[in-house]
């Protein structure tokens, strides 16, 4: 465990271009702020451009020299993801780190613009498509580049239900969330394996924040209109969770630490993996299932229409 590692441990990022999805709040906001503090240029990929600009203004109040750009990228709409990728390629000549951070958690069943179950569609398919569309820019950037995908400890209860992937027959919000977070890891590890076979300069790693207090926990109870669950979640956040700034450390560690290797998984090293300084960990046995990973990969290419050409 990197017991003394903090955001201040990040080396100089001057000249680095970094994309963070969900950068306007929670872990994405704190990661964006940390990257910018060390001189990186951060592209804030946000579902709402308006909220993204408000977040950027807030960061600049503390860091007047922060180099930030805000672009709309709605992971629930693959047309928006493609538009973001086209705009990025037309505007930015390099990409050093892609942080697949945004997500939704334990919400009632809804569907994305393309008809996917929202948690699977946003948390996995949206990031799968985005990574594939930006892969050429990662390739073309000199030196080592990284893709870091945010998972969750909840992935440990997850299973990929290939017979009902979109939860059309049976839907449980937490099972769907766990499935999407397991899919994040299967993707991150499979991406690293495929990159290792084809080219050596792009590393794919994964991370999880432990239990961090963010607005992510509020969405499900709010959508259900459950005041009791909303109160209980707020109480748990206050009593147990670490703050979002600390929760962002595994993502920052995976994105910037010089000794990180592809296929590694970073999470808090403290109490039950819920809090503390980042360390290299091992995820669930299911997350290393190569057969499931390959099957999910082929299906994801089919569903998104994004061919990685690896």
TrEMBL record:
One Pfam short name: adh_short
CDD domains, sorted: retinol-DH_like_SDR_c_like
Keywords: Oxidoreductase
InterPro entries xrefs: NAD(P)-bd_dom_sf (IPR036291), SDR_fam (IPR002347)
GO molecular function: oxidoreductase activity
Classification via Gene3D superfamilies: NAD(P)-binding Rossmann-like Domain
Signal sequence range: none
NCBIfam families: PRK05854.1, PRK06197.1
Name of the protein this chain belongs to: Short chain dehydrogenase
């Amino acid at each position: 465990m990197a017991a003394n590692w903090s955001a201040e441990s990040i080396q100089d990022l001057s000249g680095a271009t970094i994309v963070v999805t969900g950068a306007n709040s929670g872990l994405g906001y704190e990661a964006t702020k940390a990257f910018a503090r060390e001189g990186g240029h951060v592209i804030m990929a946000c579902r709402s451009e308006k909220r993204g600009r408000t977040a950027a203004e807030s960061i600049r109040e503390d860091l007047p020299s922060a180099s930030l750009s805000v672009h709309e990228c709605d992971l629930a709409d693959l047309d928006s993801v493609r538009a973001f990728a086209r705009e990025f390629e037309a505007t930015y000549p390099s990409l050093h780190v892609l942080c697949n951070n945004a997500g939704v958690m334990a919400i009632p069943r809804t569907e994305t613009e393309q008809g996917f179950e929202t948690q699977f569609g946003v948390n996995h398919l949206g990031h799968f498509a985005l990574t594939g569309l930006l892969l050429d820019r990662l390739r073309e950037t000199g030196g080592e580049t990284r893709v870091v995908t945010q998972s969750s400890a909840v992935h440990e209860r997850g299973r990929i239900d290939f017979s009902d992937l979109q939860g059309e027959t049976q839907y449980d919000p937490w099972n769907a969330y766990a499935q999407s977070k397991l899919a994040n890891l299967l993707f991150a590890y499979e991406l690293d394996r495929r990159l290792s076979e084809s080219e050596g300069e792009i590393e794919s790693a994964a991370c999880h924040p432990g239990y961090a207090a963010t607005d992510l926990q509020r969405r499900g109870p709010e959508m259900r209109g459950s005041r009791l669950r909303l109160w209980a979640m707020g109480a748990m956040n206050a009593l147990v969770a670490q703050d979002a700034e600390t929760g962002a450390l595994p993502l920052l560690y995976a994105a910037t630490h010089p000794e990180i290797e592809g296929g590694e998984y970073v999470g808090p090293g403290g109490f039950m993996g819920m809090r503390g300084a980042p360390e290299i960990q091992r995820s669930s046995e299911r997350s290393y299932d190569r057969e499931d990973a390959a099957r999910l990969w082929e299906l994801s290419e089919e569903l998104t229409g994004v061919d990685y050409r690896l």
